[in-house]
Write a structure and sequence with these properties.
alpha/beta; Rossmann fold; 2 domains; eight-stranded mixed sheet; six-stranded mixed sheet
Length: 273
């Protein structure tokens, strides 16, 4: 058998097109590479439940890096998990509450919200919550006391501000002064907060060690700031054409955009040699 590769891809703006779908060509080549013994991994800032829904579409052997690297594993096994220290989480909560910006904390299976429901929850879920019914995996943390009840569960956090971007910028500046966290953004209207020393690059390294794969045999695809560590660590870091200039500069190569199947075309080029 040829040398085994670890192929890691971001979801939004990379593996997924603008409709939120994986193209049939991309699915086909990934599944064929898995059959040949290569490892494919979704690497995303999304929570585990959301990432797993795409892993299940690709196939049972698909690995998952989620919460921007705070978690890595297969669909059946945890390989790496980095929880946010309790005191750090409390400080993050207090800062964002002082700015009155919606904040979401994530564990592997649950999402905790401070003010409003996450946009990715279905209309049916929201209707159930509005009538006082529980939704599995959805927990309000409207007060500091209710927030503290779940300390030790939090992997990462995301703040989203749709209207006042200047307020978001001020909050980001204040968060960067806190110890124990790394602050970044994947979109203009969010702040992504992960434990210090945790990122997608570290999670990729954990998978590499677990599967005993040479570093030069790691291929990573991404388009955002939260993909930089992964692209830099990989033997071949590939930026999408829709990436920011910063991401393109740190990549080894630039492929087509996510709507033109950039992941598919690069994998086809590499593995047809």
């Amino acid at each position: 058998m040829k040398e085994k590769y670890l192929i890691c891809s971001d979801l939004d703006g990379t593996l997924l097109n603008s409709k939120g779908e994986i193209s049939s060509n991309t699915l086909s080549i990934i599944r064929n590479l898995q059959k040949d013994g290569h490892i494919f991994c979704i690497s995303t800032g999304r929570m585990y439940k959301s990432a797993k829904s795409f892993a299940d579409i690709i196939g049972a052997d698909t690995c998952i890096i989620c919460s921007n690297g705070a978690y890595a594993g297969t669909t059946t096994e945890d390989i790496h998990k980095s929880n946010m220290p309790p005191e750090t989480a409390i400080n993050v909560y207090k800062v964002m509450q002082s700015f009155n910006i919606p904040l979401y904390f994530f564990s592997k299976d649950d999402v905790y919200y401070t003010k409003v429901l996450p946009l990715f929850f279905s209309k049916e879920d929201m209707q159930r919550l509005s009538t006082g019914s529980n939704v599995n995996g959805m927990k309000p943390i409207l007060t500091l006391d209710s927030f503290k009840e779940h300390l030790g569960n939090y992997l990462n956090a995301i703040a989203i501000e749709e209207e006042d971007l200047s307020l978001l910028k001020k909050a980001k500046t204040k968060l960067k002064k806190l110890s124990g966290i790394y602050v970044q953004s994947s979109y203009f209207n969010n702040i992504e907060i992960i434990p210090h020393g945790t990122d997608k690059g570290l999670a990729v390294k954990k998978l590499q060690e677990h599967f005993n794969i040479n570093r030069e045999n790691i291929i990573a695809f991404g388009d955002g700031e939260n993909d930089l560590s992964m692209l830099k660590y990989a033997g071949i870091g590939v930026a999408m054409d829709n990436s920011t200039d910063e991401v393109k500069k740190c990549a080894d190569r630039v492929t087509l955009n996510n709507n033109d199947e950039g992941v598919y075309h690069t994998l086809k080029e590499i593995f047809s040699k």
